[in-house]
Amino acid sequence: MTSSSHVWRVFGLLGAVATTGFLAQQLLRPESFGELGPYRADAVQEIMDLEVVHQGKEVCGECHEAIHHAHAKDIHFRVPCEDCHGPGQAHVKYHKNNDPLVSRAQATMPREYTLEGCLFCHRKLAARPRSFAQIDPGEHYEFLRVNKPETRCIECHSPHEPLFLVEEVSKARIHPVILECEGCHDAQPQKDHRTVPDHPAIFICRDCHPAVAKDFAKRTHSFLRCTACHTFYRETETSGRILKNGDRRFCLLCHEDKPFKDKESMPQIAYADHLAKMAKVMRRDPDILDQDATMCLACHFDFIHDNKLMKTLEEHEP
Fold it and tell me: Do residues 251 and 166 share a domain?
């Protein structure tokens, strides 16, 4: 090699870059860097000092007591109000703190219905567990015989009380995880899973409730899955809570006369007229009868289960 000057120039350049980088690091490195790990320790306090944007359900409940109570009781109890209505910072400042820097327009929280707002959580996806409430809008409307595709979800479902539960979720009975055949199979298999060699161990309703399942197969509502009415709320990998949806408003999700429903497809009633008629038959005051949340089941329970069978089973429960 006749000359090595070009090599020294490269090494000199690399050395200059390394030296510049080292000096820049020493000059620009924050004082608190490394105290709590490979980041600025001061950042923790800076984040803590930021103004709170989301207020939480408890703050909402201070003014909206009735809605807060209904929401806390039903299946959406873990969904924060601000998931649907947006951050409540300006709203609270205006209405509770009388902040003159916040206008009424800024304090107004969005309440407009959007289909995508509901489907963001409830659109039917293969990745979601079957126990989670999910729909394909077309299939759902066809099942309920809804003849107007522009019908809004909130025409039937209340976002605050989706299932109109009589008792709150936390008081429902602890129940083993329910695994339905359709969770893995495209259609209901003809064979019992216990007769299939090497079938994975699963729990289905008729394993523990054979008499009820056999009787239900003869009932008007037998085309429904058990969990259509007895919603399962999963809490862990092995257990959850089974919800008995006995409120009349739950029954009316399917059976209330609505202008967007096909009246020939399933029995439908005009609730106020039906209530007045039944009050006369039962010789009861309509207003008092209306206060009975489970009044539908008083007359129509046999369309779902054998009343005598259910009472017998309840008597023998431990």
Answer: yes
Q: Looking at the structure, tell me whether residues 204 and 285 fall in a common domain.
A: yes
Q: Is residue 5 part of a domain?
A: no
One domain for residues 95 and 196: no
Residue 40 belongs to some domain of the structure: no
Question: In terms of DSSP H, where are the helices of 49-108?
Answer: 57-61, 65-73, 81-85, 89-95, 104-107
Is 126 in the same domain as 254?
A: yes
What Rg value do the Cα atoms of the chain yield, rounded? 30
Residue 160 lies in a domain: yes
Q: Do 95 and 103 meet the contact criterion of CB atoms below 8 Å apart?
A: no
Residues 232, 178 contacting (CB under 8 angstroms):
yes
**Which is nearest to 160 in space by CA: 91, 93, 249?**
249
Structural domain of 281 = 117-315
**Which residues neighbour 68 within 8 Å (Cβ) at sequence distance 6 or greater?**
57, 60, 61
| Tally of domains within the chain | 2
Among residues 137, 124, 149, 118, which one has the least CA distance to residue 262? Answer: 149
Question: Is residue 173 helix, strand or coil?
Answer: strand
Is there a domain that residue 6 lies in? no
Predicted confidence pLDDT, tens digits, the chain (318 residues): 567 778 888 888 999 999 999 898 888 888 888 888 888 999 999 999 998 899 999 999 999 999 999 999 999 999 999 999 999 999 999 998 888 888 999 999 988 888 888 999 999 998 888 778 899 999 999 888 898 889 999 999 999 999 999 888 988 989 888 777 777 777 777 777 778 888 877 778 888 899 999 999 999 899 888 888 888 888 888 888 998 888 999 999 999 999 998 888 788 999 999 999 999 988 889 899 899 998 899 889 988 999 888 888 777 665
